Amino acid sequence: xxxxxxxxxxxxxxxxxxxxxxxxxxxxxxxxxxxxxxxxxxxxxxxxxxxxxxxxxxxxxxxxxxxxxxxxxxxxxxxxxxxxxxxxxxxxxxxxxxxxxxxxxxxxxxxxxxxxxxxxxxxxxxxxxxxxxxxxxxxxxxxxxxxxxxxxxxxxxxxxxxxxxxxxxxxxxxxxxxxxxxxxxxxxxxxxxxxxxxxxxxxxxxxxxxxxxxxxxxxxxxxxxxxxxxxxxxxxxxxxxxxxxxxxxxxxxxxxxxxxxxxxxxxxxxxxxxxxxxxxxxxxxxxxxxxxxxxxxxxxxxxxxxxxxxxxxxxxxxxxxxxxxxxx
Length: 328
Hints:
It contains 15 helices and no strands. It has 328 residues and is mostly helical. It folds into 2 domains: 35-83, no CATH class; 101-321, MetI-like (MetI-like fold, Orthogonal Bundle), CATH 1.10.3720.10. Helix 2 crosses helix 3, helix 5 crosses helix 9 and helix 9 packs across helix 11.
């Protein structure tokens, strides 16, 4: 296992370099640029230099006057030292802006993922064990409703019902009006109160697909020959389902859980925008629209690292979940 992990890490480094280069090329080819906006604004000031002169000066300042390959090598050299520069749009160090907004999205994503697993997996197993029953049909309808609901529609519905009609929650934002006057515990509860509706939105929207996926895989396992053999031996139905069948259902679920690692840090653009949550999804979108290459490069390469790490974790968990899986 150690040799496998070391081998995968070495391969991941080469993959990461290729992915980072592709991202860098795409960033350099963005149709909009924050530098162009700044150069245009400065050139319109009385007695100022021309747009071309300002563009040349700003490009030299931020290293954009180099070719793609020299520029990428220079970026890699700084990235290895932990220097990612300043965000062009937010005018603060990239890491500082990233640290300010990432944890909000991470908390929302982590809580919604835990709720998704707690809700979807048991309901999927129940639907599979009671196939074609009223329970199965009810769970299927709920799952299809969750899959079909657009995020913006469901979030707007929650805001209309719980914010406008009932007044239980604020329409948006991360903190309330009296946040500064509250104690530490009160501030924590105020933030948690504002995250309830966004977390409910993320959970309901994503729970349906995992529920259907669990049901489908559970049905395939229940129809296997070894399950019929276990029942023929006189084992209880509970032991057949949860000891024999469910463990084999976990194998494809591990792939989903491992692949969800980047999602914990990628944010939810639509949900964060609708609820006015300053998370990483909204911030990264604004950065890309403004042509903020330093922040966009750091964010996208960070997601690439998490994707490679998630795949490695999934491969390792295969051996944990299924003893038959061994790496020679």
